[in-house]
Amino acid sequence: MISNLTIRVAHIPEELLEIEKIRRVVFQVEQGVEQDLDFDGLDEICDQLIAYLNGECVGTARIRYLNEKTAKIERLAVLEMARGQGIGQKITEKALEVIASKNIPEVLINAQEYVKGLYQKLGFQQEGEVFEEAGILHVKMRKNLIC
């Protein structure tokens, strides 16, 4: 059990550097994603989540609102030293809470294929076939929230 984990909506711009640092390590260094694909200019219009474990920033995700009925969870990343403890799931659960609090009924995610089980556990359903994005296999997933 992770007792010293805090996940909340980040204070922007103060915590954006920490978020960017995590995403650089996970997406660009570990997975080889191009910087301009990760940092697409949309961060400022999204809710950003930040996860602290024992006071250290270890994870993030962003919520992009596509319209008044649909939100998309994107850029979920957890530093390697903090993986395997369920932090990604906890960040996703917090994102779902934030989205539900805005009475948005539908959530999308383009999940990396190897972690789609995490999202299935949380009630997401796969739609369509596997596709490649930034050189990584993904699946589109959807969850309907009861608001």
Describe the structure.
- The protein is an alpha+beta fold.
- 27% of the residues lie in helices and 39% in strands.
- The chain is built from 4 helices and 7 strands, in the order E-H-H-E-E-E-H-E-H-E-E.
- It has a 7-stranded mixed sheet, with helices on both faces.
- The longest helix is centred in the N-terminal third of the chain and has 15 residues, at 16-30.
- The radius of gyration is 14 Å and the shape is globular.
- The N and C termini lie far apart (29 Å).
- The mean pLDDT is 94.
Secondary structure blueprint with pairings:
Layout: E1 5-9, H1 16-30, H2 35-38, E2 47-53, E3 56-67, E4 70-78, H3 87-101, E5 106-112, H4 116-121, E6 125-133, E7 136-144
In short:
By secondary structure, this protein is α+β, with helices and mostly antiparallel strands. It has helices spanning 16-30, 35-38, 87-101, 116-121, and strands at residues 5-9, 47-53, 56-67, 70-78, 106-112, 125-133, 136-144.
Q: Which residues form runs of ≥5 with pLDDT under 50?
A: none
> How many E strands?
7
The largest sheet has its strands arranged as 1-2-3-4-5-7-6
What is the beta-strand fraction?
35-45%
Q: Report the helical percentage.
A: 25-40%
Indicate the overall shape.
Answer: globular
Class by alpha and beta content? alpha+beta
Radius of gyration: 14 Å
Note the gap between the termini. Answer: 29 Å
What's the total helix number? Answer: 4
**Series of H and E elements:** EHHEEEHEHEE
Mean pLDDT: 94
Q: What is the multimeric organization of the chains shown?
A: single chain
Give a short account of the largest sheet.
7 strands, mixed
